[in-house]
Amino acid sequence: MYKYYNQNFDKDEMFFWLCQMARQFESAVVIINPAKGNVIEFVNHVFTHLTEYSESELIGEKLNILHGPLTDILNEDAIQECIVNGQQFTTSSFHYRKDGSTFWNEVSILPLKNLNGEFQYCLLMMKDVTYATKLDSLLELERNIYFKLENGYPLENVLSEICNHVENTFRIQCHCTIVLIDEKRKVTGVYGGATKTFEISEYQAFFIDKDNRNFSLSLDRNATFIKNIKKTVYYEQYKTLIDKENIVSLWGQPIFNKEEGLIGYFSIYFEEEMEPQATDYKFINTNVTPIVTLAVKYYNQKSAIHSLAFFDSETGLSNFEGFKNKMQTEWEADLGDSYLYIIEPSEYQKIVDLYGRQGGDKILLKMAKRIQNIFAEHKLFIARYTNSAIIIASQLKISDLQFTQAEMDHLLFEPYCINNKDVYITLKVGTSKICQETPINQAIRQADTALSIALKSVGTVIKKFDAEQVESVANEMNVLANIAKGLMKDEFMPMLQPKVDIKTGEINSFEALARWISPELGFVSPALFIPVAENTGNISKIDRAIFKKVLQWQKHRKETNSPMYQVSVNISPNHFYHPAFVENVMELIEKYGVETKYIKFEITESIELDNVMRAKKIINDLMKYGIATSIDDFGIGYSSLSYLQELPFEEIKIDKSFVDNLADPRMHAVIKTIIHLSRNLNMRCVAEGIETEAQHKELLQLGCNSGQGYYYFKPMPLHEVDELLQKNTQTQF
Predict the structure, then answer these.
(1) What share of the chain is helix, strand, coil (3-state, %, to 5)?
(2) Average pLDDT of 522-538?
(3) Which of 5, 17, 130, 399 could form a disulfide with 103 if both were Cys (CB 3.0 to 4.6 A apart)?
C-alpha cells in the first residue's frame, strides 16, 4: 500500500521528519530520493553499524555499494526496478560489508507518494537475517542427510554433502573438510572439497602432532581461527601443503561425541584473509558440528545393525540374510548350475535340552567346519539357515563331490564334543538345484520342502526336491486350513469294519475307522488328516466325534431291539493320556445309555507305552467300568514284550505289515510266536489286513482267533452295517 501525505506539506520538512523517525527505528533504514537518481540520502545508525560504512561514505551512493562477487544481480535489478516504479517489495539479498564480510540482508521497500500520486521518497528497511537463513538451510540439510543415511548412502557422500552445504552457505571461495580420527588420534577418513589433493598422511601431519595426542592448531575445545596462516609458525613446517591448496585463512572446530570424546575436526580453508563474525562461529560450533556428530554416530549404528543383519553372532557364520545377499550379488553373477543343501541334525533339540542354546550353536558350527574342511577345494558357501539348520551352496552336486570314506565317516560317525562330552548325530538333508529356470529364492524354498520330507525319516537321509513334495505339502496345508471347519460342521464319521471269527466266519465285533469327506476337499485320506490332526492338537476332538457317533448308533440298535455288537474305537496318545480321559468317556457312555461291554478302545503301540505305570492305571480304571482295551499295530515297536505282561490288554492286533509278509518263513515264525504269546496271556488275537484266502487259511492253521480285512469285509457306513447285520452275520468261506 502506498503512503500519502498532504501536498501542501513541504517536501524538505517531510524529509526532516522521516529522518527523525528513522533514527528511532531498531531496524536499519535507508531513504532514497528518486528525483536524484535513486541515490542514498539518509541512513540511520543501525544501517551504518550493519554495513560498517560511515554515513558520509553512504550518502550520495547507490545500493550497489553493498554488492559483491556473489551477489545475485538479477535480484538487485528487481529491487532497483521497484524503487524506480514506486512499488512495494520484500526480498533477501546477499550483501557485503565494508570489510568484505558477507551477510543476508532482508530488504523491504516502502514507496511514499503525496495525494496527487507523485512519488517522493523510497524508504528501505533492512535486517541482517544471515543466521536465520542459515538455520533454514540447515533444516533442509538435515533432511537430506537423514534421507541419505536411511537409504544406505556411504559416509563419504553424507559428510561431503555437509561440506558442500557450508561452502554454498558462505558464498565465498572456500573449501570445507571433515577429518575423522580414531581413539589413538589416527586419521581414519577425510571428506570434503580438499580431499581430491590431500592425502590422509598429509592430514595426519597437519592436524596431529608427532606423539598423536593433541591437535596442533587447537589444543582445547575452542574453535581455531587463523586469519593468515602464512604468518604463523606452521607455514614453514607445512609450506608445501599450504601452498598447494593456496590456504590463507583457516577456521576450524573440534568435533566431539556425546561422551566428550574427540572424533574429528571440521575446518574451512579460504584463499584470502577472512575473519569470522560471531554468527559464523555460532553457525559452525552450534549448528554444523552437531550434525556431523549425529551423522557419524547414526552411520556407525546403521553399519553395526547392517553387520548384525548379515552375521550370526553366536556361530560366526553368515546368517540367512547374509547368505541371500551373497548369492544375489557375488554368486549369481557366475552362477551356472549350482546346488543348495539345507542340513539339520536330527538330534538338535535334544542337544539344546541337554546343553542349552549354546550347545545347539556349537554343534552347527562344528558341523559347518567339518563340511568346509572336507570340501575345501570346491567353491562352497555355508551360512546358518535357522536355529537348527545350516544352508550350503555348491557348484557340484553330492554325487560329483570327491571325498574319501574316512572323510565321510568323520562327518557322519565321529562324535562331536560338546562340553567335554561326545555327541553323536544323524543328518537330515534337503537339496535342490539352482539354474536359469529355478532362481535362488525358489531353490531355497524347494530345498526347505525336501528337508521337511527328510525330517520324517529315520537316520541320516538326503532328500532331493521333486514336484510331488510340493503337492504333498499343499495337501497338508489344505487339510490344516479345513480340519477345524470340518469338526465344526460335523464332517467326520465312522466307518465300521467287521472282525470275523476265523473258524466260523461269524462277525463278532467291529472296528470304527475315522473317515472325512469335506465339501471343499472331497474324500481326505486318514493317512493325511490324522498326522495333521495329531500335530495341531485336533486328534482328540476327532476321536470324540467318532466315539459319539458310534454310541449314537449303538443306542439306536438298543432302542430297536437289534443285536448289539462290541465296537473298537481308536484313541490317540494325547487323548489317552489326558487326565480326564476316563471320566469323559464314562460321561458319554452314560449319556447314551450303552453298556460298557460293547465298547473297546484300541491303543496303538506307538503311544509311548514306556510310561507303563501311567498307562496301567488308565487301563485298570477302564476295566473297573467294564471297558476292554486292545493293543493295536503290535510288533512294530521296540519294547512290546517288556510291557505286554504288565498291561492288562484283552486283545492283541497283529499289524498288517506282518500279515502281508506271512509267506516269508521268518515273518511266519514271528506271527506264530505272537499268536502263542496271546494264548498264554489269555488274550484274543486279531490279524489285520487279511486280503487273500491263503492268508486266511494259514492264520486259521496257526490258531489266530479273529481276522479283519478286505478278504472278509471292507469298512462300511453305519447304514450298510445295519443292512449287513439284518441279512447275515456270517461270511461264507
Answers:
(1) 45, 25, 30
(2) 85
(3) 130
User: Topology of 133-308 in CATH?
Assistant: Beta-Lactamase (3.30.450)
Tell me the C-alpha to C-alpha distance, in Å, between residue 726 and each of 502, 534, 550, 599, 710. Answer: 21, 37, 18, 21, 20
Please report the beta strands in 290-404, taking only residues with DSSP state E, as ranges in sequence order. 338-345, 380-386, 389-394
Pairing mode of beta strands 684-687, 651-654 = parallel
One-letter identity of residue 579: P
459 dihedral zone (left: phi>0; alpha: psi -120 to 50; beta):
left
Residues for the chain: how many in total?
A: 733
State the DSSP H helix or E strand holding residue 132, giving kind and residue range, or none if neither.
helix 130-150
CB atoms within 10 A of CB 377: 9
**SS3 label, residue 282:** helix
In the block, cell 501525505 appears at 5
Domain range 496-515+539-727, CATH class: alpha beta
Amino acid at position 198, single letter: F
Is pLDDT of 66 > 90? yes
In this structure, are residues 725 and 563 in contact, taking their beta carbons and an 8 Å threshold?
Answer: yes
Residue 470: name the closest of 436, 447, 438 by CA.
447
What is the C-alpha separation between 343 and 9, in angstroms, rounded? 101
Looking up cell 548325530 gives 425
Q: Superfamily for 11-128?
A: PAS domain (3.30.450.20)
Task: Work out the percent of the chain whose per-residue pLDDT is above 70.
Answer: 86
Q: Which residues, in sequence order, are CB contacts of 76 under 8 Å at separation 6+?
A: 63, 64, 67, 93
- Burial of 185-195, coded b for 16+ CB within 10 Å and e otherwise, reads bebebbbbbbb
Compute the Cα dihedral for 191, 197, 203, 206 and give only its sign: negative
Q: Which of 97, 77, 72 is nearest to 89 (CA)?
A: 77
Residue 439 has which C-alpha cell?
532362481
Residue 182 pLDDT level (bands cut at 50, 70, 90):
confident
Model pTM score: 0.48
Strand partners, 427: 345
Q: How confident is the model at residue 553 (pLDDT cuts 50, 70, 90)?
A: very high
Mean of pLDDT over the chain: 83
Choosing among 3.40.570.10, 3.10.20.30, 2.30.40.10, 3.30.70.270, the CATH entry for 320-465 is 3.30.70.270
**What does the block give as the cell for 239?**
609450506
Residue-wise pLDDT tens digits, 78-125: 999 898 888 899 998 988 889 888 888 999 999 987 767 778 889 999
Distances (CA, A) of 113 to 4, 37, 126, 215, 709: 5, 17, 21, 62, 118
